[in-house]
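so my prof wants the structure for this chain in the tokens format not the other one, which i didnt know existed until like an hour ago. anyway here's the sequence
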Amino acid sequence: MNLKTTLLIIEIASAREKRLTDSVKNPLKALLTKRIKSLKGPLRRLLLSENFVLYLTLVFFLILWPIVPRIASLRNLTNLLSNMWPLLILAIGQMFVLILGGIDLSQTSVMATASVLGAIFMTSEVDPVLFSKSPFWGLLLTTEGGVLSGSPLAVPVGILIMLFVGVLIGLFNGIAVAKFKMPPFMVTLVSMIFFSGLAIYLTKSENIIHLPDAYVAIGRGKIGFFTYSFFIAGLLAMLAQLLLNRTVIGRWFYAVGKNIKAAVISGVPTTRVILLGYMLSGFCAALAAILYSARLEGGRPTLGQNLLLDIIGAAVIGGISLFGGKGKVHWALFGVFFFTLLANALNMLNLSFFTINIVKGAVILLAALIDVTRIRILARTSTS
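here's what i got, hopefully its the right format
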């Protein structure tokens, strides 16, 4: 069976399931659909555009400018952009899993575990009072630092260990989902709890500092106006774009997300595709851990603890579907841009932590509702 036939079967099966799902309508969703359908001309085209989130971000920025003038300062814009790139890496990793119809709640615990294990090999000095009860004390940690302290191999080996840890945890999640047919939410929730606890246990809740200058430079170094994280995130984004749009594997990702049963019947290696998706998510989480820990100059057992809402929020706001089969790299970029700007504005307004989370949650819910409505309208427009 050739690829065109495979995709046709999947499209037909997905359309059938969509019609069955649409038969039960949410009143709020139906009202929003009716309102959007009543729009005409440029406003309707704007709302249904793939670049809608980008336009919304620009309008949001222009509205905020008179209210919070500091938001347009060079210092704040520089800080805004530097915060974007590690989050974009995480959002791209989450995108691969969401396209498959899954979710990865363990990305933040991957960050914590990877940063701790990498730092254990790279650190040049350890306080025995703080780490004498660590299970690694006397094996990988001594008063003189990690096993590679002072070695030119410390940074490259530490980075490779961090990436390996991310891929390994992703593989574990993928096996549980693909092989044992366990719900992705439950699998990654358990991973999040387990590996977060593991990172704390290994370090006894202490940060591992005194990392090599060459490693710290990865998070803080610049080439002109652009940080190293900009180039790393840009390279990852281009590779992800090529994978999804220029390879058979990319088509398999969308096929599995649209209808996994039809994909199996059509000969798509669904197990391998799901494994790859979760491994890519783990890899991206570890890569982000490198940038964050280098910037913070330490391996932290709580690294990324408050980032999960931002990761999923940015992906959903960008238009990546929680139901699978829909997602693009530039959508992740737009979502990260909007969510980073939103978080920055809320902090500048001096709102409480709880108020900020309430606003973020409301925005994510509204974005998901608008996304579902836009998909329905586009589908009806294409078939009419």
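also thought this was worth mentioning. The chain has one domain: 3-14+25-383.
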